[in-house]
């Protein structure tokens, strides 16, 4: 299993899908090159991920907050998430809970599992074969320190040019 982090979230208006972009942790520190794993999600799922990333709080609990509150009251927590398969453009995930010394493994949509992991700061992993099949190379071109805004713009253009069909093969 390879540790990954949520690199960015690109939210699109319906009917276009939004994209959660994962990146292997060890590649973040490497200068100049990386791989990304784009996961297409719906607008509602992207909204939930955005709430998690921004650590937003509301006066009433959202569904993911309710789930985490229930876990807390059951003396359990999110142990980790694994993106364990990809078929075409559809990703699959396992959400592992820890209750004392007991691990509970659940099938989950990646968008839900990732939103929960981000909220609880739980580790996120991807199976190595899934990383190999679903990742795209991304080369960062650093010519000057001010280039970060240009790099971000170039990266967003690259992601917007991807389509779910690019995964079929």
Distance between the termini: 23 Å
Output the CATH class name. Answer: Alpha Beta
What is the correct CATH architecture? Roll
Q: Can you say what the CATH homologous superfamily is?
A: Bifunctional nuclease domain
What spatial order of strands do you see in the largest sheet? 6-5-4-7-1-2-3-8
* Main beta-sheet annotation: 8 strands, mixed
Radius of gyration over all CA atoms, rounded: 17 Å
Give the low-confidence spans. Answer: none
Beta-strand share of residues: 35-45%
At the fold tier of CATH, the topology name is: Bifunctional nuclease domain
Shape: globular
InterPro entries: BFN_sf, Bi_nuclease_dom
Protein name: BFN domain-containing protein
Pfam family, one: BFN_dom
GO molecular function: nuclease activity
Helix/strand layout:
Blueprint: E1 2-10, E2 18-24, H1 25-28, E3 33-41, H2 43-54, H3 63-73, E4 77-87, E5 90-99, E6 102-108, H4 110-120, E7 124-126, H5 128-134, E8 136-139, H6 148-160
Parallel strand pairs: 4-7
Antiparallel strand pairs: 1-2, 1-7, 2-3, 3-8, 4-5, 5-6
Helix pairs in contact: 2-4
